[in-house]
Write a structure and sequence with these properties.
Layout: H1 7-22, H2 26-37, H3 40-71, H4 73-97, H5 113-125, H6 128-137, H7 149-173, H8 175-184, H9 186-212
Length: 213
Amino acid sequence: MDFLPSLPVFSAFLLAAVALTLTPGPDMTLFLGKTIAQSRLAGLASMAGAMTGLLFHTLLVAIGLSALLAASATAFLVLKVVGAAYLLWLAVQALRHGSALAVDDRKAAPDPLGRVFAKGLMINLLNPKIIVFFVTFLPQFVNPSAPNAAATLIFLGLVFIAIAVAFSTAMILAADTIALRLRRSPRLTRLIDWLFASVMAGFAVKLALAEAK
């Protein structure tokens, strides 16, 4: 299985994936909001929709970036450098503006689970930040000279989804406690912001140093 990344690269990817999963965003807001306002089953349905969207993004990125690599390894490296700059920008934004988590805890008429799934899917598919992020994030862990870059991208994307499912499910099961603590504890929210910013900035610096050698 020569498409598997090296252990140090994979370990770094796991750290980044966990940090990203724990960072509040539109998906987490939907999961927790649906869980609190409707039911845990609704929260799981919205999560399933979002994870389906991530699978779609993974396949598109793998196809598109592998085509770019086949056309020009230099262009792929340029994309990685631009991606590193974007990740650094995300780190700065996280520290400047913080994470946004606005959970509506008002009880509402329950939506059919199919509609909840579709909402999770559409929020994920139509979020341009997710598209840009996947295009810039996954290439940081792929060697441009690797013969199976597309397989590596798909593997990493699937691992990312598996991590997201595991942590998101745990958050859904503890939605009331998490939402309450995030709203009442600015320190906890800032800790998450710093974790996210540190991981993203670390990758940006690591790539810049690697390119300078």
